[in-house]
Structure formats: C-alpha cells, structure tokens
Amino acid sequence: MTLQRKFGAIALATLLVVASASDADAQRRRSRRPPAPPPAPAVAQHVTIMDASSGAILQCQDCNTPMPPASMAKLMTVLVVLEQLRAGRITMGTRFRVSEYAWREHGAMSSGSHMFLPINSEVAVRDLIQGAVIVSANDACVVMAEGIAGSEQAFVAMMNRRAQELGLTSAHFTNATGVDDPEQRISSADLARLTRHIITTYPEFYPVYSRRQFTFNNHTQMNRNPLLGAYPGADGVKTGHTDDSGYGLVGSAVQNGERRIIVFNGLPTMAARNSEAQRLMRSAFNDFVISQLATAGDVMGEAQVRLGGRRTVNLLAKDDIRVLSPRGVRAGLRAHIEYEGPLRPPIAQGAVVAHLVVEGPDFETQRFELIAERKVGRANWFSRAFEGLRLTFFGP
Description:
This protein is an alpha+beta fold.
C-alpha cells in the first residue's frame, strides 16, 4: 500500500510537472503572438449631412439605401397628424380613446417606449403628439393612428401615400411606431428630406422637438436626443433604436443662421450614437464652405427664343444662389445653364425656364432655378413665315 501510495504521489507530481510545462509552453507561444488588434471604432452607417436652407446633400455615405428606421419612422407619423391638424379635421383638444391593442401591445404592458396611457382613457391630441415626439411613445402613435384613420393599417396607408407625394421614393412603412418589420424601410437621405419638410412647413410646431422632458400621468420621461443641451444650437430631432436598426439619430442644429440636418444609423450602443452625433454635427458646420454665386434677380445668362416677339430672353436667378461644398472641392466645380430650347412662346415673366447646374468631382450636383426676365409673346405672322422658310432652306 505504501509503495502504491508513493507511486501515486510520484505519478501525480509528474502529471503536475507535465501540465505546468504544457501551460508554460502555451503561455510562451501566446506571448510570441502579436497582440490582438483593438476593436474597430463604431462608425455610423447610412450617413446624410444636409444643408436645410437649400436641401443640398453635403455628405452621403450609403445614404440612398433603404434601411430600418426604428423610431425615426415616427417623423412620418407626426407629419400626417400635423397635416390633419392644419386641415381642421382634428384639433389639439380632440380626444382619442386608448384601445386595448394600443395599451397591451404598445403601452404599459409592452417593453417598448410608451407614455403610460391608461386603457380605455380618452387623451387629447396635444398630449399624444408630445408623447410621440419627446419620449417616442409607441402607444401615443397607435392611439392617434386609430383615432384618425380607424385603424393603424389605414393610417399606415396614409403615411405611404404622403411619402410618395413628397418624393420619398425609398420609403415604405408598415406601422406607425417604427417597431421592426422586414418591409419597413426608408433611406437616410429621405429621412433628411422629411425632416426638412417638417421644419420648414410647421415652424410653429417644430420647437416641441427641442423639449427635454415630458410629464404625463405622473410619469416624467426625458428626451433621448444626445445633442440637446450638449451641442450649441441643437434643437431636434429624433432618435431610433431596434435590434435590426441599431442606434440611429436624426439631428438638427442652427449656428450663425445656418441650419444643418444629420441622419445616421447602425451603431452598436447608445454611447457610440452620442459620440457620432457630436462628430457628425461638428463636421456639418466645420467641413463645408459656402460660395455665394448670385443674389435673387441677378442676370445669369440668356436663352434663345424661337418664333417669339424677341429672339432671346434674359435668365435671372429666382433665389439667392449659394453653393455648399466640402473644403478642397470648390476649386474643381463648374457651372453651366441648362434649358430645353430654343424656348417657345408665350413665356410668362418670372416663369422658371432654365437651371444653373453646378457639378464637379466628389460633389453632388446642385441645380438652381432661373426665371425669364420679361414676358415674351408669339412673333407676328410675317416673322413666323420667314422663320419657316429659313428652317426649310438652312435648317435649325
């Protein structure tokens, strides 16, 4: 027994030595390997930077690809509600009933964002729309959808119809909340266009997007927009997050009278979204330059007129012409006038008859409307006959 015990002890010691040697060898091999690279920094996907004044897209990184918008889809929900308000079909005091579906699937019984709407209660649009904007309340969106259209599905049809009317060709909505659905998509560029439309069309309502908190039913919740109070001039707009979309943001800010809109998506954490929001908004204001080419009414060129009382008409800038471009790109830009011509009378004074087109490498083409300086009527019969003969013998 003693010999056996000694052998067992020796064998165990030998195993321990072998194991220790093996561990040491493995550790030495690991130490000779190059260290693992640090994880790549979280960079936003589907990036759009837009100048709100002109609507020009200053930066586009996969910005035209449809993506899951998460709660950023609520921008379209709110737009439809605002249009119903402006049309007088509802008022801020209109009260809608909280259905069991809204309460159970999107309210207090759900895991999504909500504003603690009591089941079967009646809530004023004034509170519902603030809940949807400030705290991204899913239950508020469904209650407004059901109250306006009778069902969420009927309201979604209104959303899609309005998106097409606005030219948001990438947009397709399947619900009023932005919860994940494989068929619900919109590009970041179209989200920027939608945001610009809301800001310019409903300036009296837009300040709601800058409110930092909202209280309803004795519950106070904070706005999740990381730019508010952290970036100078930031006043909106909407965050979004689902498993499919990651963390995203539509943001807007004003500095020195200039407004920029940024949109991005696809970040892994809220902290990464906060950091990217700051970085992209700084870029929006610091990395682009404005060139003033003309003021409204300046003569930009002339257009030929066929069979008119005048053979040419001056082309005027309809609005101020300002070109925004990335720093370092401006030197390569070129401008030319485009129109379908010669123009055919009658031509009304102030009619848009041409465009100034600015284009260049690494630059999204920008087009500016040009108008006729004066009215041009048809030529008399003799002039028309002479022109006909000239075209017959000499061609255009």
